[in-house]
Design brief:
The structure holds 2 protein chains of 2 kinds. By secondary structure, chain A is of the alpha/beta class. Chain A folds into 5 domains: 95 residues, Glutaredoxin, CATH 3.40.30.10; 210 residues, Rossmann fold (3-Layer(aba) Sandwich), CATH 3.40.50.11540; 84 residues, Roll (Ubiquitin-like (UB roll)); 89 residues, de novo design (two linked rop proteins), CATH 1.20.1440.230; 56 residues, Alpha-Beta Plaits (2-Layer Sandwich), CATH 3.30.70. Chain A has 23 helices and 17 strands. Chain A has a 5-stranded mixed sheet. A 4-stranded mixed sheet of chain A has the order 2-1-3-4, covered by helices on one side. In chain A, strands 7-6-5-8 form a 4-stranded parallel sheet, with helices on both faces. In chain A, a hairpin with a 7-residue loop joins strand 15 and strand 16. In chain A, helix 7 packs across helix 10 and helix 17 packs across helix 21. In chain B, helix 6 packs parallel to helix 7. Chain B has 7 helices and 4 strands, in the order H-H-H-H-E-H-H-E-E-E-H. Chain B starts with 13 loop residues before the first helix and ends with a helix. By secondary structure, chain B is α+β, with helices and mostly antiparallel strands. The longest helix of chain B has 18 residues. Chain B is 45% helix and 11% strand. Chain B has a 4-stranded mixed sheet, covered by helices on one side. Chain B is elongated. Classes of the chains: A alpha/beta, B alpha+beta.
Chain lengths: 583, 164
């Protein structure tokens, strides 16, 4: 029996390392048990997760495991008796989280050991590059990718074959293949999960891409905030090199390709491909004017091709199974599958990979199990700061580049943040503008000044100081920035504002005209009050109030000093009697 | 705090410069390794890097100030990285931030007078299912409430007191 602990970053944050250490301390006394790790299975809401395998078969999956459960798990695995561990076994309902998915990019995630190249090879790894190097031409490879309909998974959805072909056609001996792993959308972690859980899939996909365009050097630009991903990818690169799957004359084919990692330093704009190139060259990550496109003049002015992690993660599967198999999934204009990071006010948050063409409802209610505490669904935010909020009556929108684009949001890189009625949509727009204004590189005026002006207007609306005409002014600014900004960051920065105005205009109006926040979120527009008939005088809120704004005697009704209150809402969550009301 | 008169031990980065100073495009790598050594980027070291890489202090400082990872000031014993990602925002990170600021009496980017805590808002730590989340040094704390966050800070304070 093999005991496997899921060790992605979020699993570790939830305590997986401690669980692993506890298991490690005792496992030696069981002669037929071994202990290992895997990456992220994607069921974040159940972490830490421990799997028990008998051969290749999953014997049992334990969820929300604590250190103190380790002995029980080892005993159950050794005796093959699950009687004493029923409380931590995964429930049938949660098994459906995975069974409703179709996993291609994530095919090995949470199953194989990401630190072992042999585990990847045993799972059919590096067969695609062998196939490519034993007789396929560059055009053959590009043709397969064209047939598959694979489009850029970073958000823009540009056909991958077209970029590869353009880079291949560009003149010059020296070409570069670059992987964009600068996953900056707040609330998105698909790429991190792929690198941490299955780094060789990325390497193999990149090798195929490098061969197709004729690059001898490949670079992975990884966010510095992902130290574990960098560590596992570096090990994978070293291991692949040792097996001659990277480096000179790969597998005796005559094709050579070196690969290295470049750690980013924390700038959202570096997700834009020309800004990423500037950063790779050691400069401030400020976008370049296009054209020339990177395919003509990119890294060190040489032809370069840049794809996102998830795009590369699909490539080996496509080569092995054929372009047609990939194209068989999805819709007319969007082929294959897409990975989403499902988060926010969702019951079952995690990583989800589904064929294009499913609806948002399938993902949020089918796989995600609906809204936390059975609250009312309000909107889903897709595409992060470049995307938009999709309201309840569009829940049946199919997941497809065109259909999502029509809502004003975008497919994006895969962030899917679910919101319930407690989220203020004006505040949401302000949140994203605050982000883009801070992350704007400052090169072009529409983005540098425009996002700042929009943020000021949104801030005053949230503070209850909004003026008549503010909505129209925002709309005007949005269009000007969309038209005038130099790069994708600026051009898409208005999307969160435009979509919230489009679908939740009444909330803007309530803030401006009535000075009210319907979601009761904007702190300047709400007050907390203790209802004296419900207050038992337990003093808990007064003791815990970080601002010492609550006063009252034991066993008598308390009150809040409104001048001192910082509106943290702590008292509301603490009160056991529901005595604190939000006005 | 002005660091114009800082006298850092420049020999500490000699190995880094030997390896990277002449490699084109490696300024960010040099700065990352420098920060690993000093804990931040002292201004005299920035001048030194500029000289050794054949660049100007303005360019090096320009790169250093562009990226969120680099800091020009030393940080406290505990670096609180408070996640402000979308999922954390939806789940109430602003309330956590208000409580921490109130408790420590500092704003984002500042360090407490005792040198114990530095508060830094960060974009997304990627542990969205545990939101709201903060990371202090290498430890991640999830499912925070204002109360829980303050309890954690107090525990660290007590721990630092013990170590003294």
């Amino acid at each position: 029996m093999r005991i496997i602990v899921g060790q992605g970053s979020c699993g570790i944050a939830a305590g997986a390392q401690k669980v692993y250490n506890a298991l490690e301390n005792s496992v030696a006394s069981y002669s037929d048990l071994t202990l290992g790790i895997t990456g992220c299975i994607g069921m974040c809401y159940l972490e830490p997760i421990v799997d028990v395998y008998e051969g290749e078969e999953l014997f049992a999956r334990f969820v929300k495991v604590k250190e103190s459960d380790s002995k029980r798990i080892l005993n159950a695995a050794a005796s093959k008796n699950l009687d004493g561990v029923a409380d931590i076994l995964i429930e049938d309902e949660d098994k459906a989280f995975l069974s409703q998915q179709t996993r291609i990019a994530l095919r090995n995630c949470g199953i194989i050991d990401p630190t072992s190249i042999d585990a990847y090879i045993n799972a059919g790894g590096y067969e695609a590059i062998k196939k490519v190097l034993s007789g396929m031409t560059q055009d053959d490879v590009i043709e397969v990718i064209k047939t598959s309909g694979l489009a850029g998974r970073g958000g823009a959805g540009f056909p991958t074959w077209f970029k590869w072909n353009a880079a291949k056609e560009s003149k010059g001996e020296e070409k570069y293949l670059i992987c964009n792993a600068d996953e900056g959308d707040p609330g998105a972690f698909m790429d991190r999960a792929v690198i941490e859980s299955d780094p060789h899939t990325l390497i193999e996909g990149m090798l195929v891409g490098a061969y197709a365009i004729g690059a001898k050097e490949a670079v992975v630009y990884v966010r510095a905030e992902y130290p574990l991903a960098i560590k596992r990818l570096q090990k994978a690169i070293n291991d692949a090199k040792a097996k001659n799957l990277l480096g000179e004359n790969i597998l005796g084919s005559g094709f050579s390709c070196e690969m290295r990692i470049k750690a980013g330093a924390g700038a959202f704009v570096c997700g834009e491909e020309t800004a990423l190139i500037e950063s790779l060259e050691g400069e401030r990550g400020m976008p370049r004017l296009k054209p020339p496109f990177p395919a003509q003049s990119g890294y060190w002015q040489k032809p370069s091709n840049i794809n996102n992690v998830e795009t590369f993660a699909n490539v080996a599967w496509i080569i092995n199974n054929g372009g047609e198999a990939f194209a068989a999934m999805g819709t007319e204009n969007s082929k294959g599958t897409k990975v989403f990071a499902l988060t926010g006010k969702i019951k079952k948050g995690g990583l989800v990979e589904i064929p294009m063409g499913k609806t948002l409802r399938d993902v949020i209610y089918g796989i995600g199990g609906g809204i936390k505490n059975d609250a009312e669904f309000k909107a889903v935010q897709m595409g992060g700061p470049s995307g938009g909020c999709i309201p309840k009556d569009l829940l049946d929108t199919v997941i497809d580049y065109k259909a999502l684009g029509a809502t004003g949001a975008i497919m994006g890189s895969g962030g899917m943040v679910v919101m319930d009625s407690s989220t203020c949509m004006v505040s949401m727009a302000k949140f994203f503008l605050d982000f883009t204004a801070k992350e704007s590189c400052g090169k072009c005026v529409p983005c540098r000044i425009g996002t700042k002006r929009m943020l000021e207007i949104l801030t005053r609306i949230c503070d209850g100081k909004g003026k008549e005409g503010d909505i129209e002014l925002l709309e005007e600014l949005c269009l000007a920035i969309k038209d005038g900004a130099l790069c994708g960051l600026g051009q898409t920065a208005p999307n969160p504002v435009l979509t919230t105005i489009r679908y939740f205009r009444n909330e803007y109006e309530a803030h401006i005209n009535e000075k009210k926040c319907p979601a009761k979120e904007c702190s300047n527009l709400i007050t907390y009050e203790i209802e004296s008939d419900k207050c038992k005088g337990c003093t808990l809120c007064a003791k815990k109030c970080p601002a010492n704004a609550i006063f009252g005697e034991l066993k008598s009704a308390h009150a809040i000093n409104q001048d001192m209150c910082i509106k943290c809402g702590q008292c509301v969550t603490l009160c056991k009697f529901g005595a604190i009301k939000t006005n | 705090m002005c660091q114009c008169h800082e006298k850092s031990d420049l020999t500490l980065i000699e190995d880094v410069l030997k390896e990277y100073a002449d490699q084109k495009g490696s300024l960010i790598t040099i700065l990352q390794k420098t920060q690993d050594i000093y804990g931040y980027l002292p201004i005299d070291v920035i001048y030194h890097i500029a000289k050794r890489t054949g660049s100007t202090p303005a360019r090096v400082l320009g790169v250093a100030t562009f990226y969120a990872q680099f800091r020009l000031q030393p940080i406290g014993k505990y670096l609180i990285m408070l996640c402000q990602g979308t999922a954390c925002h939806v789940n109430g990170s602003e309330r956590i931030e208000a409580a921490i600021k109130q408790e420590l009496g500092i704003e984002d980017g500042e360090t407490t007078a005792d040198g114990l805590f530095t508060l830094k808002n960060v974009a997304c730590l990627g542990c969205c299912s545990l939101s709201p989340v903060m990371m202090i040094n290498d430890e991640t704390y999830g499912s925070l409430t204002p109360d829980k966050a303050i309890t954690i800070l107090n525990e660290l304070k007590a721990k630092a007191e013990e170590e003294k």
